[in-house]
Amino acid sequence: MNIKRDRNKSKFLVSPDQSGSKVSATNEFLWAIIGFLLTVFSTFVQAFVTNPPWNWEQQGVNSVPLGVTFQVGAVLLTGCMGGKNAGALAQLAYVFLGLFGLPIFAQGGGLDYWQEPSFGYILGFIPGAWLCGVMAFKRRAKLESLALSALSGLGVIHLCGLVYLIGLSYLSPTTVSMNSLPHLIMNYSVSSLPGQFVIICVVAVVSFILRQILFY
C-alpha cells in the first residue's frame, strides 16, 4: 500500500489508486446466486483449450481437454467477482443442497457423500472461495493480483482435500485405505494441477475484464 504523510495535517493518507475495491451488498447477493449456479453447471463440463487462433485458418479449431472440469474455475471466479461473502455463501449452498438430496456433486449427492474421497475438496470450496474473495478485493483489480487470489484459493482447496483424504484413511480405512492413499492423492491433486493452473489464468483474465466493465 502506498502511504504518504500530509505535512500540514500530519496525517497518513492512502493513495486512491492503491486502495482496495469494495463490492456492494447487491452484487454480493447476485454473485452468490450466479456462483452457485455456475458451480453446479460446471461440475459436469470438461475444461478444454483450443489451438492458437492464428493457426485456425490452416489447422481448423481443435480442442485439447485439460483433464478437469470447470468447477474449480467457477468457485474461484465467484470469489474474484463477488468477494468473500458471495464466494463462501455460494459454496455453502452447493455443499448443503448436495448433501441433502440434490444430485449436484460429480457422483450424485446425499448424506453418504461424505465417504467419497473427493468430498474434502468440495468442503475446501468454502474457505477457498472466501480467501480468494478476500485477496481479490484488497486492492483495485489487477491481472496479477487476481491470478494470485485464485491461486491462493486453489491452494486452500487442495489442502482441505488432502487433509480430508488422510483423515478418511485413519477414520474409515474401508473407504480409503493407506495403500490407496498415494493413488488418490495423485488422482485428485497432482494430476489435476496442470489443468487447474490453466483455468486460474482464464479466471484471472475473465474477472479482470468483467471488473473493468463493471467499474469495481
Outline the structure in words.
The protein has a single domain (22-43, 67-214), classed as Arp2/3 complex 21 kDa subunit ARPC3, CATH 1.10.1760.20. Strand 1 and strand 2 (11-14) form a beta hairpin. With 216 residues, the chain is mainly α. The chain is globular and about 50 Å long. The two termini are 18 Å apart. The strands form 2 sheets. It has a two-stranded antiparallel ribbon. Strands 3-4 form a two-stranded antiparallel ribbon. It is built from 7 helices and 4 strands. GO terms for molecular function: biotin transmembrane transporter activity. Belongs to the BioY family. Keywords: Cell membrane, Membrane, Transmembrane, Transmembrane helix, Transport.
CATH class: Mainly Alpha
Q: Using the coordinates shown, work out and report the CATH topology.
A: Arp2/3 complex 21 kDa subunit ARPC3
**Strand numbers in spatial order across the main sheet:** 1-2
Query: Architecture, CATH level 2?
Result: Orthogonal Bundle
Measured between the Cα atoms of the first and last residue, the distance is: 18 Å
Q: Quick one: biggest sheet? A: 2 strands, antiparallel
Low-confidence stretches: 1-18
- SS strand fraction: 5-15%
Query: What number of domains?
Result: 1
Query: What is the overall shape?
Result: globular
Secondary structure tally: strands = 4
